[in-house]
């Protein structure tokens, strides 16, 4: 359900750098990103560990200040004053990967969910709002969970408590960082169904950070594939996952059931302090290694020419010399 409304959350030319070790080159964790999330839309941010997706998510939430670029909410750039950030974090909530680490083992479920209300000075009708949040998160009857502690709950129930803690403030957007990675396969579907139901019933927007393209297929309206600090392909989920243009996306998809012959990428992602010249994926690219870039006449560009940062919006785009050459040929034939 992709919305045609103006973006609720938007990143424009976003960069985040961290100091290098012993005075070395800085690590470019986010190296030029344009990304939009519209009301009622679920966007999946996909990539390997270390690609920068969690840093991007934290920056979108105001937890990390960008080195350059702008994060805007409802069209207004984020202000990093304490009061403004507190107000923004009421609207934009984080759901973390590990519910056991997110919940204080000494706090009851009631206190864990009520914490946000107390921080923001909204303790009026606290009991009613906590009960409503737990109920919306699928813990019913909610009163039965009030006095329980995290260790008394299953993994799926703990994740529902974390989601209830986000819902209690009636946010407009949720950033979920690997929301089902630590759960059993039997519980993952329940949590994904819950997120979809919350989107449909409450109009929530969500950015779901994951390494799992299968999860994206089940939940997202759009997908943004991230590699070494940049989004290298983006577009509607059906198009990206059935006809991916970027070799990296193709490799990620190949490991899924019915994904075809698995693509084994050589080596590890490069160090973000030493991003290679040319296409940042070329040192691992199966298309370049297999000679297809030579056939397309762009092998030299792959090795030496950087690609432009992909624009935001809802259209399909890929930062790949081969894909762009093929698209140009197809356009000329048409």
From TrEMBL:
Q: Does the keyword ATP-binding apply?
A: yes
Name this polypeptide is given: Peptide ABC transporter ATPase
Q: Which SMART domains match?
A: AAA (SM00382)
**Keyword Transport on this protein?**
yes
Judging by the UniProt lineage, the source's domain of life is Bacteria
MF terms from GO for this chain are: ATP binding; ATP hydrolysis activity
Family membership, please give it: Belongs to the ABC transporter superfamily.
* Pfam families, per the entry: ABC_tran, oligo_HPY
Q: Where is the ABC transporter domain?
A: 9-253
Q: Which organism is it from?
A: Knoellia sinensis KCTC 19936
GO biological process entries: peptide transport; transmembrane transport
Coiled-coil stretches noted in the UniProt entry, renumbered to this chain: none
Keywords on record? ATP-binding, Nucleotide-binding, Transport
């Amino acid at each position: 359900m992709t919305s045609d409304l103006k973006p609720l959350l938007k990143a424009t030319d976003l960069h985040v750098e961290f100091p290098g070790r012993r005075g070395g080159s800085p690590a470019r964790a986010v190296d030029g990103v344009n990304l939009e999330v519209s009301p009622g839309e679920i966007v999946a941010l996909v990539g390997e560990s270390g690609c920068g997706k969690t840093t991007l998510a934290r920056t979108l939430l105001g937890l990390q200040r960008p080195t350059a670029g702008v994060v805007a909410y409802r069209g207004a750039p984020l202000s990093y004053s304490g009061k403004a950030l507190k107000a923004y974090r009421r609207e934009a909530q984080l759901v973390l990967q590990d519910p056991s680490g997110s919940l204080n083992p000494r706090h009851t479920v009631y206190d864990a969910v009520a914490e946000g209300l107390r921080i923001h000075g909204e303790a009026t009708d606290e009991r009613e709002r906590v009960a409503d949040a737990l109920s919306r998160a699928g813990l019913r009857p909610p009163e039965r969970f009030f006095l329980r502690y995290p260790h008394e709950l299953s993994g799926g129930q703990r994740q529902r408590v974390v989601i209830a803690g986000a819902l209690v403030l009636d946010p407009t957007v949720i950033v979920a960082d690997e929301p089902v990675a630590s759960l059993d396969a039997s519980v993952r579907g329940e949590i994904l169904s819950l997120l979809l139901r919350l989107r449909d019933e409450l109009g929530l927007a969500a950015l779901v950070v994951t390494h799992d393209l299968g999860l994206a297929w089940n939940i997202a309206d759009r997908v943004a594939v991230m590699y070494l600090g940049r989004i290298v392909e983006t577009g509607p989920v059906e198009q990206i996952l059935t006809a991916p243009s970027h070799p990296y996306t193709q490799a990620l998809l190949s490991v899924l059931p019915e994904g075809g012959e698995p693509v084994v990428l050589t080596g590890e992602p490069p160090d973000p302090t030493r991003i290679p010249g040319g296409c940042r994926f070329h040192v691992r690219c199966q298309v370049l290694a297999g000679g297809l870039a030579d056939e397309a006449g762009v092998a030299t560009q792959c090795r030496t020419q950087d690609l432009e940062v992909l624009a935001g919006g809802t259209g399909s785009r890929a930062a790949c010399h081969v894909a762009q050459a093929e698209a140009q040929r197809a356009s000329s034939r048409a």
